[in-house]
Amino acid sequence: MTAVADRSLGPDLDLVDTISADTDVLVIGLVSGDDGPTIATLEDEFVDNILAPEVRAALQEQLRAVGAKGKAEELTRIPAPTGLDVKSVLAVGLGAADKIDAEQIRRSAGVAGRALTGVGLAVTTLSGLEGGIGPTAEGFFLGAYTFTAFKSESADGKPDEQPVHKVELLVGDPSVSYRKGFNHDWVIAESIATARDFVNTPPSHLYPAEFATRAKALAEAAGLQVEVLDEQALADGGYGGVLGVGKGSSRQPRLVRLTYNGGAKKVALIGKGITFDTGGISIKPAANMENMTSDMAGAAAVIAATVAAAKLELPVTVIATVPMAENMPSATAQRPGDVLTQYGGKTVEVLNTDAEGRLILADAIVRAGEDDPEYLIDVATLTGAQMVALGTRTPGVMGTDDFRDRVARLSRLAGENGWAMPLPTELRADLNSKVADLANVASHRWGGMLSAAIFLKEFVPEGVQWAHLDVAGPAYNTGGPFGYIGKGGTGVPVRTLVSVIEDIAHEDAAE
Ligand code: BES
Ligand code: MN
Ligand code: ZN
């Protein structure tokens, strides 16, 4: 395990077997029940014994006295009872005992992590829950995530507004037994924070060339091979989709290719990298247009997941193909009615310049297909229709039947909620164009998420196992914080992608 987590992205984490003397806050889990809440009994007996029976009884009594119920993600903070050498105790609800799973632990640790603002050192017993170490690490790390790159010192320098500095996870034997799982989930949390950072960086500062430069630096630091196609290379290569979408902007498009050579099996990842989507000449309304800074979230997740695969040394080859462009209206922008030639030769009539994601993805999918991958996954904030169909927290998963179902299942196991959606064959005819091979939108708005996927399907090579994730809503949180997710970039679907790559890595073992 060469993985070293990047501490600049979140709090420091460590595994310990005692409560350090200078600990500020002890975070414990509280389980709801008919006879009132109880302090979570831990799988790891050693950790359970850290709270002496009388301390535990006093804690439980005090928590009940102040009205704690143990409801999922409820927070109750009380002074430490005598006999417990910390300044205060933060009890976080876990809900009913029979419903506690990895995602619940992650969410509860997340709300605790958010509540620990201004705290120096916290220690937690959540890591003693069954399977709790990884989710606890991830929940605290991501809950404490903040994006302050554009806040001046005076705004964010106050110590009481800083995220928790360090969280110690109580375990039975911190020396060996849990290290591997702990590092694994920490690397994933770090990758999620990386994806969030990309998404949260405003479009003034993250435009295609800059995005490519940052992706290259990140990937090279992890030992990946990197290739960046600039506008000239894109023109020479015939990437008509990326060029068509990018030509309205003074900031030229890019296509980034990252290769992690980990083994014989090959997975292609493709991510939509629209650094800002105004809609182009088919311009969007002003209200909420600023949220279109998130239109490169697919690209961010794909880059972060590819780097994670390398850091985790997964025995699979992962090749990311990431098209980046800014969709702007201008005298040089493409027009509704223009016809462009995608990479590979298919022609597309651009009826709506706001359906730009599919145009850059089509080029990238064809290019990715040339590497002969067994699996191809594309990720995109592709349609508003995704949110109409599934809401803001459920990614739509489409593609070839078996792989689509596998990806959706793994996404749910990972706590990212992917849901399988169909590709009804009758919708294909609605993409027929009178002048080109294909139109980029249908003449009606029904099944908009599916119609976009059906467009992409035209470019997926025969015989490849394909999954398309539409994360328009889930990748970017415009509402209040919840669980381990704050406002802005969420990092979805990094965890799904890493889980799928791991599942592919291990599939031979199961056969
Ligand atoms: N980037 C948008 C999709 C989107 C909408 C993402 C809201 C996140 C939040 C995409 O490029 C787009 O504009 N899609 C159009 C497609 C339509 C023109 C067929 C849409 O959904 O309205
Ligand atoms: Mn658009
Ligand atoms: Zn878009």
UniProtKB/TrEMBL annotation:
| GO MF, any single term | aminopeptidase activity
Q: Name the CDD domains for this protein.
A: Peptidase_M17
Which part of the chain is the Cytosol aminopeptidase domain? 352-359
Q: Quote the catalytic activity from the record.
A: Release of an N-terminal amino acid, Xaa-|-Yaa-, in which Xaa is preferably Leu, but may be other amino acids including Pro although not Arg or Lys, and Yaa may be Pro. Amino acid amides and methyl esters are also readily hydrolyzed, but rates on arylamides are exceedingly low; Release of an N-terminal amino acid, preferentially leucine, but not glutamic or aspartic acids
A Pfam family per the record: Peptidase_M17_N
Sites binding Mn(2+) 2 sit at K272, D277, D295, E356
Question: How does the cofactor bind to this protein, according to its record?
Answer: Binds 2 manganese ions per subunit.
Q: EC number(s) in its UniProt entry?
A: 3.4.11.1, 3.4.11.10
Q: What is its main location?
A: cytoplasm
Q: Where does the UniProt annotation locate this protein?
A: Cytoplasm
Q: Which cofactor does it need?
A: Mn(2+)
Query: Which residues are involved in binding Mn(2+) 1?
Result: D277, D354, E356
Keywords, in A-Z order: Aminopeptidase, Cytoplasm, Hydrolase, Manganese, Metal-binding, Protease
PROSITE patterns reported for this sequence: CYTOSOL_AP
Is DNA-binding among the key words of this record?
no
Q: Which family does it belong to?
A: Belongs to the peptidase M17 family.
User: Main role?
Assistant: Presumably involved in the processing and regular turnover of intracellular proteins. Catalyzes the removal of unsubstituted N-terminal amino acids from various peptides.
This protein's name: Probable cytosol aminopeptidase
Task: Specify the species.
Answer: Nocardia vinacea
Q: What is the lineage of its organism?
A: Bacteria, Bacillati, Actinomycetota, Actinomycetes, Mycobacteriales
